[in-house]
Amino acid sequence: MNQNSVSNLRRLLPGVPNIESPFFESLFANAEPHVQQIAKQLHTNGVAAFKFPEAEFDQLAADIKASLSKSFNEQSWARFRAGGGADLRLLNAWQVDANVRRIAANQSVINLLSKLYGAQAWPFQTLNFPVGTQQALHSDAIHFNSVPERFMCGVWVAFEDVTVDNGPLFYYPGSHRLPIYTNEHLGRCVSTLPTRPDQTMYEPMWRALVEAHGMKPKRFLAKKGDALIWAANLLHGGSPHINREASRWSQVTHYFFEDCAWYSPLFSDPFYGQIYFRKLINIQNGHFMPNRYAGWDIPDQFIDSTRSTQPDGPYHFDANAYLEANPDVAQAGADALQHYILHGHAERRRLR
């Protein structure tokens, strides 16, 4: 197939990632062999392994481990070694560590992801782990999703060898092809809940899907420098970290793609007027990325007006405006924000 034909197919469904397109075979027919191989793995299994393309990777990994080790106190390590829960992770260390940013902004990885998805990739979040995550089975799509959907992926890279004893990743091949189920499919309007929702309300459904489809998990026993791309809706998690004396340093970078809107379905009820839009910085260049829909910037006033009230009230909540709009609340001497969270939102009170 010539390049013009490929471009025409792409224009027919620009809102579907190339790796998940019904025109997949044609879109990658003339791609470089290594891109074809990775694309096929992602299309079929929802994951693809590759060697992280960084000549100085060993030194970078050592420097990151030395730098970030100072961020974890001995009490957290003691709880972990004793078998207890300890949240040993660092969110967005790229903001303080240039080497973390260098891994996240690796140009070869960004170029590869852009070819795989048919849109320009950009990194928006990093997570660094000194041990296995031990995360329950989940799909990232309820936390980070896009419109059009599925324009998100993660890249995990091992800073040291991973064995069955130090918490390898597990995933269910092919699960990325399942529908993306969000709050309305669970019959939940989270905007009316008194407390912040979390993914536990999805976990029984995910487990049932795995069982219903007869899916079997696979583990990724990586060597240092091995990396794994996974698709937005892949069901995955972290195996138990059996040897609590062993570390398992790694980094996750999450990527979105340009010309999309980015939001968290877990905190959103779009047809109830609540959308948890994400206002994010491109790690590579430090610029805020505009939320867009079909080539058009989404107006800021719409983003602000639909800001999810979970759990801390509407975005830029104006207490005085709320009390002026609701004089009975003012006369009662109630705290404006507290009243809105507990009562006003469910009553569909005016904000101004």
Keywords:
352 residues, alpha+beta, Jelly Rolls, 4-stranded antiparallel β-sheet, 14 strands
Description:
This protein has a six-stranded antiparallel β-sheet. It has two domains: 15-300, Sandwich (Jelly Rolls), CATH 2.60.120; 317-352, no CATH class. The termini are far apart. It has 352 residues and is of the alpha+beta class. A hairpin with a 2-residue loop joins strand 13 and strand 14. The chain has helices at residues 3-12, 24-27, 33-45, 57-68, 74-81, 98-104, 107-117, 203-212, 300-305, 319-325, 327-331, 336-344; strands at residues 47-51, 90-91, 121-129, 138-139, 145-147, 152-158, 169-171, 218-220, 226-231, 235-238, 250-257, 261-263, 292-293, 296-297. It has twelve helices and 14 strands. The radius of gyration is 22 Å and the shape is globular. InterPro entries: Phytyl_CoA_dOase-like.
List the strand order in the largest sheet.
1-9-6-11-3-2
Q: Structural class, judged by helices and strands?
A: alpha+beta
Evaluate the radius of gyration. Answer: 22 Å
CATH architecture descriptor name of the largest domain: Sandwich
Number of helices: 12
Any idea of the CATH topology of the largest domain? Jelly Rolls
CATH H-level superfamily title of the largest domain: q2cbj1_9rhob like domain
The count of β-strands is 14
State mean pLDDT (0 to 100 scale).
Answer: 92
